[in-house]
Amino acid sequence: MFEGMREDVWRAVEEMEQLMTHGHITAKSKKQPKPTQSSTDGIPPSPQPGQDPTVFFLPNLAALPFHHVPRIKDCPCARLWTTIPPHKHSPPITLTGDIEALRTNYAVIKRELMSVMSSSEDLFTTFDSAVYNQVHNINSQQPEWSSIYLYHQGIQQSEMCNKYFPQTTNILETKCPHRMAGKCGLGSVYFSKLKNNTKVKEHCGPTNVRWRCHLPLFVPQSSKSYLFVGLAGVNEERISWKEGVPILFDDSFVHSAEHNTDNSTVGDERIVLIVDLWHPSLSDADRTAIGVLYPPGY
To answer: Mean pLDDT, to the nearest integer, of 169-184?
Structure first.
């Protein structure tokens, strides 16, 4: 289990063991580890400005707000977009192509969701209204952010997956080897819907050991909808959703989202499939250890 594990991951396991056994961290465990190498290929290592995960932080992982396709030659995210030849600096994980699998199966996933939405049963569950508000207060349309979870905090929602989304679930389980959900409680998979005039407030995700992928399924053409990631005035980037075009970002950075259309009509919602993926620089041993620290449903 421990071969190929990062020193920082080992320290996290050691500290958790100390807490569970003695209720505190010993002086030996608190000792600072030797500095690890900076991220390769010129990608800045964590922590970066605006990066403040709420649960678990691992230093010295490659850290950028967005991971765009043009940058893949300079970033470990290449392993998520497509298959690349292994080289001597590659981590043990070699299976690749999660995002490409989602992109090529966009029509299948969308068709399955459309079938569910066309039924009389509404499966979307609204998030707490404290985490979102209106884009424009003068707009009479009430904001709403809702979801359908396939995996929640690592646990598969079996009825939802088997009854309503069997094809999407099969794609996730057979073509997405970097999928975190099902193996660790820090990862989820869900459909996220923003109604017109909705803004998700700024927040940071729970950890930097995952990257988050959006697969846009429904994006009204007349919409002014954006995802903001990074610290404003420092490293913030803004990107708009396009149907069928995946977006990969590090949600341990502060981020927010807003969706606004020119006209309030039926079908004006923005809906994306959100898939949490392991940081591609982590080895099998790293992932196993983190999964033990934060198991599904932790």
So the answer is: 95
